[in-house]
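Hi Y.,

Following your request, here is the sequence exactly as I used it, all 140 residues.
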Amino acid sequence: MSSPDSRFRIVWLAAGLLAAALGFCGVFLPVLPSTPFFLLAAGALARSSPRLHAWLLGLPHVGSTIKDYEQGLGIPRKTKILATALIVFTIGFTVTLGVEHWALRLGVTLLAGYGTFFIWRRVPTREEVLRETPPRPDRP
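Below is the corresponding structure, written out as tokens. Let me know if you'd prefer a different format.
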């Protein structure tokens, strides 16, 4: 009998590849933030394909952000501000022009509010973590 991890490996792999694809789309589309998708891809690929996870970590610009997040350093304040601005812009556009039903407007707004809350309260800010972390004795 196979372990639960091996049974879900294909699901994790598919989720990781989809998230990575969305992350790459986010690089070119200003209303789609790439960082959350790359972080999601890294988590899913770490569970399914060490080779693809290592490839993701080796990508320029993206890899360092993922490594910092995986080491508990969080994401830079600039990234949080950009993500929040994109959420506000996208939700403002969606609620005013894109969605007509009030329940969908409310749902989209609540989801955006939770996303913003999560980014600012649950995801560490890199600069704050570095300020609070004492220097290691083997480094000056």
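Residues 77-98 form the longest helix (22 residues).

Thanks again,
Q.
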